[in-house]
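Protocol step 4 of 6: structure prediction from sequence.
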Amino acid sequence: MVTPFSVSTPQSSPCEGHDIFLHLADSIDRRQRERPLGLVSNFVTDELPHCIAEIKCSERPDEAVKALGRSVHAMIAASDYDALLRSLPQSEFEIAKTDIQYLVNCAYQMSAFAGLHPLDAELTVGEALSRLARSSCDRQPGIEVLSYEDMILTNPLQNDPRVYCLGAAGVEERDFCLGHQIIESELQSAMDALLNLRDVAEVDAGQCLTLCLERLESANYVLTRFHEHMSPDLFGQFRVFYGKNPYKNTLGPSGRFSARIVAVSVLLVGEELFHQKPQFYSDLYRLSEYYPQRCIHEVFRWLSSDKESASSKPGWLEGKADFPRVATISPVVEHHGGEIETLRASCICALDRFTRMHRSTALKYTVEPGRPIVGVEVSENVEAVLSQRLLTEALR
Protein backbone atom coordinates (compact mmCIF):
# COMPACT_ATOMS: atom_id res chain seq x y z
CA MET A 1 0.00 0.00 0.00
CA VAL A 2 1.37 3.39 -1.04
CA THR A 3 0.87 6.38 1.23
CA PRO A 4 -0.48 9.37 -0.73
CA PHE A 5 1.89 12.29 -1.00
CA SER A 6 0.93 15.27 1.11
CA VAL A 7 2.53 18.54 2.09
CA SER A 8 1.68 20.89 4.90
CA THR A 9 -1.08 23.35 4.14
CA PRO A 10 -2.75 25.62 6.68
CA GLN A 11 -6.11 24.02 7.39
CA SER A 12 -9.13 25.97 6.26
CA SER A 13 -12.80 25.15 6.36
CA PRO A 14 -14.47 25.12 2.92
CA CYS A 15 -17.15 27.51 4.24
CA GLU A 16 -14.53 30.16 5.02
CA GLY A 17 -14.48 31.25 1.40
CA HIS A 18 -17.67 33.27 1.77
CA ASP A 19 -15.94 35.62 4.23
CA ILE A 20 -13.35 36.95 1.78
CA PHE A 21 -13.71 40.23 -0.10
CA LEU A 22 -16.16 41.90 2.25
CA HIS A 23 -14.05 45.09 1.83
CA LEU A 24 -13.90 45.88 5.53
CA ALA A 25 -11.72 48.72 6.80
CA ASP A 26 -9.87 46.67 9.42
CA SER A 27 -10.82 43.08 10.20
CA ILE A 28 -7.38 41.55 10.77
CA ASP A 29 -7.16 39.84 14.16
CA ARG A 30 -3.53 39.50 15.23
CA ARG A 31 -3.98 38.09 18.72
CA GLN A 32 -2.21 34.82 17.77
CA ARG A 33 1.13 36.37 16.86
CA GLU A 34 3.68 34.32 14.91
CA ARG A 35 7.02 36.15 15.06
CA PRO A 36 9.94 33.69 14.65
CA LEU A 37 12.52 36.43 13.95
CA GLY A 38 11.57 38.62 16.90
CA LEU A 39 12.08 42.31 16.09
CA VAL A 40 12.44 41.62 12.35
CA SER A 41 9.13 39.75 12.25
CA ASN A 42 7.53 42.47 14.36
CA PHE A 43 8.77 45.11 11.94
CA VAL A 44 7.49 43.27 8.83
CA THR A 45 4.09 42.63 10.37
CA ASP A 46 3.40 45.81 12.32
CA GLU A 47 5.54 48.60 10.86
CA LEU A 48 6.34 47.86 7.22
CA PRO A 49 2.89 48.84 5.85
CA HIS A 50 3.16 52.19 7.66
CA CYS A 51 6.67 52.76 6.26
CA ILE A 52 5.38 52.09 2.75
CA ALA A 53 2.50 54.53 3.19
CA GLU A 54 4.91 57.21 4.43
CA ILE A 55 7.24 56.68 1.47
CA LYS A 56 4.35 57.01 -0.96
CA CYS A 57 3.37 60.36 0.62
CA SER A 58 6.92 61.67 0.93
CA GLU A 59 8.12 64.66 -1.07
CA ARG A 60 11.49 62.87 -1.38
CA PRO A 61 10.63 59.19 -1.76
CA ASP A 62 14.19 58.38 -2.84
CA GLU A 63 15.59 59.57 0.48
CA ALA A 64 12.75 57.93 2.41
CA VAL A 65 13.45 54.56 0.78
CA LYS A 66 17.16 54.82 1.53
CA ALA A 67 16.35 55.68 5.14
CA LEU A 68 14.15 52.58 5.37
CA GLY A 69 17.06 50.50 4.08
CA ARG A 70 19.41 51.94 6.69
CA SER A 71 16.88 51.22 9.48
CA VAL A 72 16.46 47.61 8.38
CA HIS A 73 20.23 47.13 8.13
CA ALA A 74 20.75 48.52 11.65
CA MET A 75 18.00 46.30 13.05
CA ILE A 76 19.47 43.14 11.51
CA ALA A 77 23.04 44.05 12.49
CA ALA A 78 21.99 44.42 16.14
CA SER A 79 21.42 40.65 16.62
CA ASP A 80 22.73 37.36 15.26
CA TYR A 81 19.78 36.60 13.03
CA ASP A 82 21.85 34.18 10.96
CA ALA A 83 22.25 31.89 13.97
CA LEU A 84 18.59 32.30 14.91
CA LEU A 85 17.51 31.42 11.38
CA ARG A 86 19.60 28.24 11.42
CA SER A 87 18.20 27.16 14.79
CA LEU A 88 14.50 27.53 14.00
CA PRO A 89 12.32 24.41 13.60
CA GLN A 90 11.00 23.99 10.05
CA SER A 91 7.52 25.42 10.67
CA GLU A 92 8.96 28.61 12.19
CA PHE A 93 11.76 28.78 9.63
CA GLU A 94 9.22 28.89 6.79
CA ILE A 95 7.51 31.92 8.32
CA ALA A 96 10.90 33.53 8.96
CA LYS A 97 11.81 33.03 5.30
CA THR A 98 8.54 34.71 4.35
CA ASP A 99 9.41 37.68 6.58
CA ILE A 100 12.83 38.00 4.97
CA GLN A 101 11.47 37.79 1.42
CA TYR A 102 8.71 40.30 2.18
CA LEU A 103 11.39 42.75 3.33
CA VAL A 104 13.64 42.14 0.32
CA ASN A 105 10.72 42.45 -2.09
CA CYS A 106 9.58 45.68 -0.44
CA ALA A 107 13.05 47.19 -0.72
CA TYR A 108 13.20 46.49 -4.45
CA GLN A 109 9.62 47.53 -5.21
CA MET A 110 9.84 50.79 -3.27
CA SER A 111 13.24 51.54 -4.78
CA ALA A 112 11.59 51.27 -8.20
CA PHE A 113 8.72 53.48 -7.01
CA ALA A 114 11.26 56.11 -5.96
CA GLY A 115 13.18 55.80 -9.22
CA LEU A 116 16.43 54.58 -7.68
CA HIS A 117 19.33 53.42 -9.84
CA PRO A 118 19.96 49.65 -9.61
CA LEU A 119 23.12 50.22 -7.55
CA ASP A 120 21.18 52.35 -5.07
CA ALA A 121 18.45 49.72 -4.95
CA GLU A 122 21.02 47.08 -4.00
CA LEU A 123 22.38 49.37 -1.29
CA THR A 124 18.83 49.85 -0.01
CA VAL A 125 18.38 46.09 0.29
CA GLY A 126 21.74 45.97 2.04
CA GLU A 127 24.27 43.22 2.66
CA ALA A 128 22.79 42.10 6.00
CA LEU A 129 19.33 41.46 4.56
CA SER A 130 20.78 39.93 1.38
CA ARG A 131 22.84 37.56 3.51
CA LEU A 132 19.75 36.44 5.44
CA ALA A 133 17.91 35.88 2.17
CA ARG A 134 20.78 33.75 0.82
CA SER A 135 20.89 31.74 4.07
CA SER A 136 17.18 31.01 3.87
CA CYS A 137 17.53 29.80 0.28
CA ASP A 138 20.51 27.63 1.25
CA ARG A 139 18.33 25.83 3.78
CA GLN A 140 15.24 25.68 1.53
CA PRO A 141 16.19 26.00 -2.16
CA GLY A 142 13.92 27.98 -4.42
CA ILE A 143 13.75 31.14 -6.47
CA GLU A 144 15.67 33.95 -4.76
CA VAL A 145 12.75 36.39 -4.77
CA LEU A 146 9.35 36.49 -3.08
CA SER A 147 7.63 33.28 -4.20
CA TYR A 148 4.09 31.93 -4.35
CA GLU A 149 5.08 29.61 -1.51
CA ASP A 150 6.17 32.56 0.67
CA MET A 151 3.13 34.65 -0.19
CA ILE A 152 0.48 31.93 0.21
CA LEU A 153 1.60 28.65 1.74
CA THR A 154 3.83 29.81 4.60
CA ASN A 155 2.29 33.23 5.25
CA PRO A 156 0.29 32.87 8.54
CA LEU A 157 -2.71 34.54 6.94
CA GLN A 158 -5.41 33.48 9.37
CA ASN A 159 -3.52 34.37 12.55
CA ASP A 160 -0.89 37.00 11.77
CA PRO A 161 -0.83 37.91 8.05
CA ARG A 162 2.06 39.60 6.29
CA VAL A 163 0.69 42.35 4.02
CA TYR A 164 2.02 45.52 2.41
CA CYS A 165 -1.02 47.79 2.66
CA LEU A 166 -2.96 49.52 5.42
CA GLY A 167 -6.71 49.72 6.12
CA ALA A 168 -9.22 48.30 3.66
CA ALA A 169 -6.50 47.66 1.07
CA GLY A 170 -4.54 45.60 3.62
CA VAL A 171 -7.62 43.55 4.47
CA GLU A 172 -8.32 43.02 0.77
CA GLU A 173 -4.68 41.98 0.29
CA ARG A 174 -5.01 39.49 3.15
CA ASP A 175 -8.25 38.15 1.63
CA PHE A 176 -6.56 37.82 -1.76
CA CYS A 177 -3.83 35.67 -0.23
CA LEU A 178 -6.23 33.82 2.10
CA GLY A 179 -8.50 32.93 -0.81
CA HIS A 180 -5.55 31.32 -2.55
CA GLN A 181 -4.66 29.48 0.66
CA ILE A 182 -8.19 28.08 1.00
CA ILE A 183 -8.08 26.96 -2.63
CA GLU A 184 -4.73 25.25 -1.98
CA SER A 185 -6.29 23.33 0.91
CA GLU A 186 -9.13 22.14 -1.33
CA LEU A 187 -6.70 21.17 -4.09
CA GLN A 188 -4.64 19.18 -1.57
CA SER A 189 -7.74 17.18 -0.62
CA ALA A 190 -8.58 16.58 -4.29
CA MET A 191 -4.98 15.55 -4.94
CA ASP A 192 -4.95 13.13 -2.00
CA ALA A 193 -8.19 11.52 -3.21
CA LEU A 194 -6.75 10.99 -6.69
CA LEU A 195 -3.51 9.57 -5.29
CA ASN A 196 -5.54 7.12 -3.20
CA LEU A 197 -7.34 6.02 -6.35
CA ARG A 198 -4.09 5.67 -8.31
CA ASP A 199 -1.88 4.05 -5.68
CA VAL A 200 -3.94 2.25 -3.03
CA ALA A 201 -5.17 -1.28 -3.76
CA GLU A 202 -8.85 -2.12 -3.16
CA VAL A 203 -9.79 1.51 -2.57
CA ASP A 204 -13.37 2.66 -3.23
CA ALA A 205 -12.88 4.35 -6.61
CA GLY A 206 -16.28 6.03 -6.57
CA GLN A 207 -15.66 7.51 -3.14
CA CYS A 208 -12.27 8.85 -4.22
CA LEU A 209 -13.63 10.57 -7.31
CA THR A 210 -16.68 11.90 -5.47
CA LEU A 211 -14.41 13.50 -2.87
CA CYS A 212 -12.20 14.93 -5.61
CA LEU A 213 -15.25 16.41 -7.32
CA GLU A 214 -16.51 17.97 -4.08
CA ARG A 215 -13.14 19.59 -3.35
CA LEU A 216 -12.80 20.94 -6.90
CA GLU A 217 -16.29 22.42 -6.71
CA SER A 218 -15.38 24.06 -3.40
CA ALA A 219 -12.24 25.53 -4.97
CA ASN A 220 -14.40 26.81 -7.82
CA TYR A 221 -16.70 28.52 -5.32
CA VAL A 222 -13.80 30.39 -3.72
CA LEU A 223 -12.35 31.36 -7.11
CA THR A 224 -15.77 32.68 -8.16
CA ARG A 225 -15.65 35.04 -5.17
CA PHE A 226 -12.43 36.46 -6.62
CA HIS A 227 -14.11 37.05 -9.96
CA GLU A 228 -17.34 38.54 -8.62
CA HIS A 229 -16.39 40.32 -5.39
CA MET A 230 -12.76 41.48 -5.40
CA SER A 231 -12.45 45.28 -5.54
CA PRO A 232 -10.46 46.44 -8.60
CA ASP A 233 -9.45 49.65 -6.82
CA LEU A 234 -8.22 47.90 -3.67
CA PHE A 235 -6.53 45.21 -5.75
CA GLY A 236 -4.71 47.92 -7.65
CA GLN A 237 -3.19 49.23 -4.42
CA PHE A 238 -1.39 46.00 -3.52
CA ARG A 239 -0.89 44.17 -6.81
CA VAL A 240 2.30 46.10 -7.64
CA PHE A 241 4.05 44.41 -4.71
CA TYR A 242 3.41 41.00 -6.25
CA GLY A 243 4.64 41.82 -9.72
CA LYS A 244 8.03 40.88 -11.08
CA ASN A 245 11.13 42.18 -9.36
CA PRO A 246 11.82 45.50 -11.13
CA TYR A 247 15.60 45.04 -10.95
CA LYS A 248 15.93 41.33 -11.72
CA ASN A 249 14.86 39.11 -14.61
CA THR A 250 12.39 37.15 -12.51
CA LEU A 251 8.64 36.63 -12.42
CA GLY A 252 6.43 37.57 -9.49
CA PRO A 253 4.46 35.21 -7.24
CA SER A 254 1.27 34.03 -8.92
CA GLY A 255 -1.43 31.38 -8.70
CA ARG A 256 0.09 30.17 -11.93
CA PHE A 257 2.75 28.58 -9.71
CA SER A 258 0.39 26.39 -7.71
CA ALA A 259 2.02 22.96 -7.75
CA ARG A 260 -1.20 21.41 -6.51
CA ILE A 261 -3.24 22.47 -9.54
CA VAL A 262 -0.43 21.00 -11.63
CA ALA A 263 -0.62 17.77 -9.61
CA VAL A 264 -4.41 17.50 -9.99
CA SER A 265 -4.11 18.25 -13.72
CA VAL A 266 -1.47 15.55 -14.21
CA LEU A 267 -3.47 12.99 -12.25
CA LEU A 268 -6.75 13.70 -14.05
CA VAL A 269 -5.74 14.63 -17.61
CA GLY A 270 -1.96 14.38 -17.77
CA GLU A 271 -1.76 12.50 -21.05
CA GLU A 272 -4.43 14.61 -22.74
CA LEU A 273 -2.60 17.79 -21.75
CA PHE A 274 0.62 16.42 -23.19
CA HIS A 275 -0.94 15.67 -26.57
CA GLN A 276 -2.95 18.91 -26.80
CA LYS A 277 -0.83 21.46 -24.89
CA PRO A 278 2.78 20.21 -24.66
CA GLN A 279 3.86 23.78 -23.86
CA PHE A 280 2.21 23.28 -20.46
CA TYR A 281 4.89 20.72 -19.59
CA SER A 282 7.72 22.60 -21.26
CA ASP A 283 6.99 25.67 -19.15
CA LEU A 284 6.57 23.52 -16.05
CA TYR A 285 10.15 22.29 -16.30
CA ARG A 286 11.51 25.64 -17.54
CA LEU A 287 10.06 27.52 -14.56
CA SER A 288 10.25 24.76 -11.97
CA GLU A 289 12.12 26.92 -9.43
CA TYR A 290 9.08 29.19 -9.06
CA TYR A 291 6.86 26.39 -7.73
CA PRO A 292 6.77 25.08 -4.14
CA GLN A 293 9.69 22.69 -4.38
CA ARG A 294 8.56 19.62 -2.44
CA CYS A 295 5.29 19.31 -4.31
CA ILE A 296 6.55 20.07 -7.81
CA HIS A 297 9.47 17.66 -7.48
CA GLU A 298 7.07 14.96 -6.35
CA VAL A 299 5.07 15.56 -9.53
CA PHE A 300 8.30 15.38 -11.54
CA ARG A 301 9.07 12.07 -9.84
CA TRP A 302 5.77 10.67 -11.08
CA LEU A 303 6.63 11.81 -14.61
CA SER A 304 10.20 10.43 -14.66
CA SER A 305 11.49 6.99 -15.48
CA ASP A 306 13.78 5.17 -13.08
CA LYS A 307 16.78 6.21 -15.19
CA GLU A 308 15.96 9.93 -15.23
CA SER A 309 16.55 12.65 -12.70
CA ALA A 310 13.24 13.96 -11.38
CA SER A 311 14.26 17.55 -12.12
CA SER A 312 15.52 17.05 -15.68
CA LYS A 313 13.31 17.33 -18.75
CA PRO A 314 12.00 13.79 -19.41
CA GLY A 315 12.49 11.89 -22.63
CA TRP A 316 8.77 11.73 -23.44
CA LEU A 317 8.62 15.53 -23.63
CA GLU A 318 11.22 15.42 -26.39
CA GLY A 319 9.52 12.60 -28.30
CA LYS A 320 11.96 9.92 -27.13
CA ALA A 321 9.43 7.87 -25.13
CA ASP A 322 5.73 7.47 -24.48
CA PHE A 323 4.00 9.62 -21.90
CA PRO A 324 4.01 7.79 -18.52
CA ARG A 325 0.29 7.01 -18.13
CA VAL A 326 1.02 5.39 -14.76
CA ALA A 327 1.46 8.92 -13.40
CA THR A 328 -2.27 9.44 -13.98
CA ILE A 329 -5.46 7.72 -12.83
CA SER A 330 -6.35 6.71 -16.41
CA PRO A 331 -5.27 3.01 -16.13
CA VAL A 332 -7.31 2.58 -12.94
CA VAL A 333 -10.39 4.31 -14.37
CA GLU A 334 -10.24 2.22 -17.55
CA HIS A 335 -10.09 -0.93 -15.44
CA HIS A 336 -13.31 0.03 -13.64
CA GLY A 337 -15.16 1.58 -16.58
CA GLY A 338 -18.83 2.60 -16.47
CA GLU A 339 -19.80 4.82 -13.54
CA ILE A 340 -16.18 5.48 -12.61
CA GLU A 341 -15.43 6.84 -16.06
CA THR A 342 -18.49 9.10 -15.73
CA LEU A 343 -17.27 10.37 -12.35
CA ARG A 344 -13.83 11.09 -13.81
CA ALA A 345 -15.50 13.07 -16.60
CA SER A 346 -17.32 15.14 -13.97
CA CYS A 347 -14.01 15.84 -12.22
CA ILE A 348 -12.48 16.89 -15.53
CA CYS A 349 -15.36 19.31 -16.12
CA ALA A 350 -14.85 20.79 -12.65
CA LEU A 351 -11.12 21.18 -13.28
CA ASP A 352 -11.84 22.79 -16.64
CA ARG A 353 -14.22 25.27 -15.03
CA PHE A 354 -11.53 26.11 -12.50
CA THR A 355 -8.86 26.78 -15.12
CA ARG A 356 -11.28 28.84 -17.21
CA MET A 357 -12.38 30.89 -14.21
CA HIS A 358 -8.73 31.45 -13.22
CA ARG A 359 -7.97 32.71 -16.71
CA SER A 360 -11.09 34.89 -16.81
CA THR A 361 -10.38 36.41 -13.40
CA ALA A 362 -6.73 37.11 -14.21
CA LEU A 363 -7.72 38.86 -17.43
CA LYS A 364 -10.49 40.84 -15.70
CA TYR A 365 -8.20 42.29 -13.05
CA THR A 366 -4.88 42.63 -14.88
CA VAL A 367 -5.20 43.29 -18.60
CA GLU A 368 -8.60 44.81 -19.29
CA PRO A 369 -8.54 48.38 -20.70
CA GLY A 370 -7.34 50.92 -18.18
CA ARG A 371 -5.31 48.46 -16.10
CA PRO A 372 -1.55 48.58 -16.73
CA ILE A 373 0.19 45.27 -17.34
CA VAL A 374 2.84 44.63 -14.70
CA GLY A 375 4.76 41.54 -13.72
CA VAL A 376 4.75 39.90 -17.15
CA GLU A 377 7.00 39.89 -20.18
CA VAL A 378 5.76 39.63 -23.75
CA SER A 379 6.80 35.96 -23.70
CA GLU A 380 4.84 35.52 -20.43
CA ASN A 381 1.53 36.93 -21.64
CA VAL A 382 -1.18 36.20 -19.05
CA GLU A 383 -3.75 34.97 -21.53
CA ALA A 384 -1.30 32.76 -23.43
CA VAL A 385 0.14 31.22 -20.27
CA LEU A 386 -3.20 30.40 -18.65
CA SER A 387 -4.63 29.10 -21.92
CA GLN A 388 -1.98 26.36 -21.86
CA ARG A 389 -3.97 24.70 -19.06
CA LEU A 390 -7.37 24.78 -20.75
CA LEU A 391 -8.82 21.52 -21.96
CA THR A 392 -10.19 21.25 -25.46
CA GLU A 393 -13.88 21.26 -26.22
CA ALA A 394 -13.76 17.50 -26.73
CA LEU A 395 -12.96 16.95 -23.06
CA ARG A 396 -15.54 19.32 -21.60
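Step 5 (inspection) to follow. The chain has 16 helices and no strands.
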